[in-house]
Specification:
Layout: E1 2-5, E2 11-16, H1 19-26, E3 44-50, E4 59-65, H2 71-89, H3 99-117
Parallel strand pairs: 2-4
Antiparallel strand pairs: 1-2, 3-4
Helix pairs in contact: 2-3
């Protein structure tokens, strides 16, 4: 599991190859005491982890990959993460005037995913 903080928006991205490490780290931050993340047979999932505010971020979103992702799978999960981060993290829904912010954030998430899989 690896954590990335964004330099522009008060949001974080958590990338992992297993559910257990994310559940262990974020268990208390999820919606309820029984709210473990479960992804079953999916290749990957994007999950809203927390709105817990600390000195670095107002919210965190996680992407958990069960498999070595294809380009298509990465793009799919990047869209979900971007939408969650901007809709809920900074209250910026996708519109014509927010399109550049969405494009920037998707590029940042792409770089984070590339870094994560170089480990």
């Amino acid at each position: 599991m690896k954590y990335y903080a964004n330099d522009i928006y008060p949001i974080a991205l958590v990338l992992s190859k297993d559910v257990e490490s994310v559940n262990k780290e974020y268990y208390n931050a999820l919606q309820g005491p029984e709210e473990d993340i479960k992804i079953g047979n999916s290749q990957a999932t994007t999950y809203f982890l927390t709105r817990r505010t600390n000195e670095y971020y107002a919210m965190a979103v996680g992407i958990i990959f069960n498999v070595e992702p294809t380009t298509r799978l990465k793009a799919h999960e990047m869209f979900h993460a971007t939408k969650m981060m901007l809709d809920y993290g900074v209250n910026m829904p996708l519109t014509d005037s927010s399109e550049e912010a969405y494009a920037y954030l998707q590029g940042w998430i792409a770089e984070c995913i590339e870094d994560f899989f170089k480990q």
